[in-house]
Amino acid sequence: MPQEISVRIDGELCRASEGQTILDVARANKKYIPTLCFLEGLTPSGSCRLCLVEVAGVGRLLPACTTPIQNGMSVNTNSDKLLRHRQMAMEFLLLERNHYCAVCVCNNHCELQAMAQRLGVTHVRFPYNYPRLPVDVSHERYILDHNRCILCTRCVRVCAEVEGANVWEISGRGINSRLVAELNGPWGGSKACTKCGKCVQVCPTGALAEKGLGVEEMTKSHENIKWLAVKRGVHA
Ligand code: SF4
Ligand code: FES
């Protein structure tokens, strides 16, 4: 039985249990912390850095989604400094690849776009990378557009933890990191892919999408995935 502890979030005394993360406790107490790579039901990866929070007595910002809560912790989820960090993290996500919303199947249904708006990111202050990246159209049902991938690994985790197929992984490092299907071959050639589409549904951008859709036509749903993850006992 996890031990009950008490913490302060934005000055408010909150009950928590050992084993919870800062994000779990903040959400249970209706405190908003922005997240992008996090998806309830999947093991958190801590890759997007949007959920950074301030913890009293700690000299650096900590990701709420992967940091375990501790008795007596005092957490601040909202400040000008945090907003500046979150905006910068968002700008780096936007400049790394080619996110042209106006011609994207997910325009207006995109978590990256919605988060940029929510954080007030109206422009990017640093030079864009403009990498030349391929689009994998080899799968009979879906496409992978590397130009729109933010390497959040939601697809990797849902495929491994919920579907159990382990089709996806990240290869390379830093700006050369790429999402790759089984043995770095074309997605359509994957023997392990069950064509379930869970990776497509959890992808926060238009990087994974169904074939045959036009601009703004791709909408996604996580509800089913959450239910499946809970059923399988993944990161309950
Ligand atoms: Fe994330 Fe989508 Fe890229 Fe997968 S394809 S890592 S879900 S952005
Ligand atoms: Fe915590 Fe992405 S949501 S690092």
List the helices and strands and how they pair.
Blueprint: E1 4-9, E2 12-17, H1 22-28, E3 52-55, E4 62-63, E5 74-76, H2 80-96, H3 111-118, E6 135-136, E7 142-145, H4 154-163, E8 168-171, E9 178-181, H5 198-202, E10 208-210, H6 223-231
Parallel strand pairs: 1-5
Antiparallel strand pairs: 1-2, 3-4, 3-5, 6-7, 7-10, 8-9
Bound molecules: iron/sulfur cluster and FE2/S2 (inorganic) cluster.
Iron/sulfur cluster (SF4) binds at residues 149-155, 179, 202-205, 207-208.
How does this structure look, described?
There is one protein chain. This protein is an alpha+beta fold and 236 residues long. It has two domains: 4-78, Ubiquitin-like (UB roll) (Roll), CATH 3.10.20; 121-231, Alpha-Beta Plaits, CATH 3.30.70.20. Helices cover 24% and strands 16% of the residues. It contains six helices and ten strands, in the order ββαβββααββαββαβα. It has helices at 22-28, 80-96, 111-118, 154-163, 198-202, 223-231; strands spanning 4-9, 12-17, 52-55, 62-63, 74-76, 135-136, 142-145, 168-171, 178-181, 208-210. The chain has a five-stranded mixed beta sheet, sandwiched between helices. The chain has a three-stranded antiparallel beta sheet with strand order 6-7-10. A hairpin with a 5-residue loop joins strand 6 and strand 7 (142-145). The radius of gyration is 19 Å and the shape is globular. The two termini are 14 Å apart. The model has no long low-confidence stretch (mean pLDDT 95). The structure holds iron/sulfur cluster (SF4) and FE2/S2 (inorganic) cluster (FES). FE2/S2 (inorganic) cluster (FES) binds at residues 35-38, 46-51, 63, 65.
